[in-house]
Amino acid sequence: MAEIVIRNLRKEFGSFTAVQESNFTVADGEFFMLLGPSGCGKTTTLRMIAGLELPTSGQILLDGEDVARKRASARDIAFVFQMFALYPHMNVRKNIAYPLLSQGMGRKETRRKVEEVAGILGITPILDRPVGGLSSGDRQRVALGRAIVREPKAFLMDEPLGALDAEFREHMAEELRALHDRMGATTVYVTHDQLEAMQMGDKIVVMNHGVVEQWGTPQEIYDRPASLFVANFIGSPPMNFLRFEATLEPGATRAHLSGVDIPIPRLETGVSGRQLVLGVRPEHVHLGTDGPYRGEVIATEYLGTTQIVTLTTANGTIRVRAPSGQPVRVGETPSLTFNTATLSLFDAGSGQAMKVDRAAARAAMREQAHG
Amino acid sequence: MSFSVTEPTRIEKWVAGVLVVVYAVVTLLPLIWIIGTGFKSPSDAIAYPPKVVFDPTLEGYVNLFTSRARLTPDALEELGPPETWYDRITRQYDMVITGPSLYGERFLNSVFIGFGSTFLSVFLGTLAAYAFSRFKVPLKDDLMFFILSTRMMPPIAVAIPIFLMFRQLGLSDTHLGMILLYTAVNLSLSVWLLKGFIDEIPVEYEEAALIDGYTRFQAFYKVVLPQATTGIASTAIFCLIFAWNEYAFAVLLTSGTAQTAPPFIPTIIGVGKDWPAVAAGATLFLLPVMVFTILLRKHLLRGITFGAVRK
């Protein structure tokens, strides 16, 4: 098992830059997600780690050794392809044994290993079947078997659940995570599905246009998005953005939005006369009757225990997740109060989050609740 | 394309049946005629009106494989009665067999040159097609077009320069020369056909093999080749049919040691107008390609429809 350090990794295809200087570390035994929309460079990054693409510049440290320019076969890394890429002219057993064959492992030892892996994955009964007639779930398991049989330093997976039915995906995701927990293998997993990333990952890297936007735990990424892109990409429905212009001193704890004073987490740096964005998650808004900041309800969506209420405010549209028991009708103008500690502030120009002190805001809120 | 889900009517079935029969007659009749002529006697072969019912004889085949000499009745008397069935046939014409004819040798030349050039075309074509399909080749499109452009003229258009080149290089009337020539003509077809087939094989298989610890070449022959067998088989059939049937270059460039069967067969006629022997030679000449095509039939069918249904 291994630690993977990505240092200033860059990839250009002709004049197109697929990945710009990227930096992140995959700790030993971590289930690591590379998340982003299609074309963001996540698959290219994964392929560089695997050795299927040669980086333009930068380093890939595998247990401290730079492997960026080594052949794929010399890296001791396993790769699970989106389409599984099971060798169609071999049966299940041969597919799983194929990586061992290249290592020159003996026939008896190979047989034992293949059967052990088949046992772990629950595919012993299909070992001698051709891969052509397998269900997508079994294909997935065979692909995993081929990856784990060699006990490589790390697993790389390129949207391995992308080819499965939605229903089956959930099940396979659990199976995959359980397998990882059992083997404790370093895994890098590419996906465009933020739910999958949040559900399965220990750490997530969010990429966009070849840039690493943020690197952190799912909770960090959800609670403290580093940029407007991340805030918009993670969460369903995504974070609301209320646009306003303001001059704020360092240490400011209030912002003026359309003449209403709204408490914000304490700013660490000031701004003057800039376009700003106040980011607020739909679940962190409370609809009430008294309060100065108001919006007009234009739509409601019923989701069982909760409902999504869409309102227009002076600073843009906002979607609120409210308990479905709360009576809300189109045309009403309820007040909106925000959970101060969860608010994010972004610079509209750069799209980057501004540094705030959430601990202070959290303490203040606690005091308010007790007092 | 849309498909009708209704049953064809009786008239439609009837019309379709008639068309198939007409087509079968048009294509099969010359073939049946040649095979039949091979079993006729020389006089039956040139009889007018043509004989549909005749006494089959192996005369044509005996004449095809033997060279014979006419003897005086006295000399024949001395030899005594014919000993074998083929002796008996030739004695009808006051002739005796003096040895085997050149047909067997020419036939083997055809086999050697035909299969040799087919192997070489497919071997080189597969390597080239793989490179064009998978690697960044500078000026790839231009090169592919150049390869195709060699087929835009009939090969015989360059017969004279090739004749002079072969004479200069000492390749005239050699097996190697004919193999190289047929390979050169077939290679463009083979590269284009095989590139299409290899393009259809997802690159992930090789990448999986690379990651599983194999080199690029191992990935090529252990993972790509087994999946390209369909394409390789159908390409081989096309190459073999061309090299096997080629006549013009064979007439021009071979006369002795490396002469193939097509230029040899017409020379059998000789002065005796021995059409049955010619027909017998043509019939036997058809067999290898027929057998080869039937053996690879399954691949050929799949090859022709390859890529038509997937994706």
Task: Please characterize this protein's 3D structure.
- Chain A is α+β, with helices and mostly antiparallel strands.
- Chain A folds into two domains: 4-228, Rossmann fold (3-Layer(aba) Sandwich), CATH 3.40.50.300; 237-370, Nucleic acid-binding proteins (OB fold (Dihydrolipoamide Acetyltransferase, E2P), Beta Barrel).
- Chain A has nine helices and 22 strands.
- Chain A has helices at residues 42-50, 92-102, 107-121, 136-148, 166-183, 194-200, 218-223, 228-233, 358-370, and strands at residues 4-13, 16-26, 31-35, 57-62, 65-66, 77-80, 154-158, 186-191, 203-208, 211-216, 240-248, 254-257, 260-263, 266-267, 271-280, 285-288, 296-302, 306-313, 316-323, 335-338, 344-347, 356-357.
- Chain A starts with a strand and ends with a helix.
- In chain B, strands 1-2 form a two-stranded antiparallel ribbon.
- With 311 residues, chain B is mostly helical.
- Chain B is globular and about 85 Å long.
- Chain B folds into two domains: 66-102, no CATH class; 104-304, MetI-like fold (Orthogonal Bundle), CATH 1.10.3720.
- Chain B has helices at residues 10-37, 42-45, 59-65, 73-79, 85-91, 103-134, 140-149, 159-169, 175-199, 204-211, 216-227, 229-245, 248-253, 261-264, 275-295, 297-304; strands at residues 66-70, 95-100.
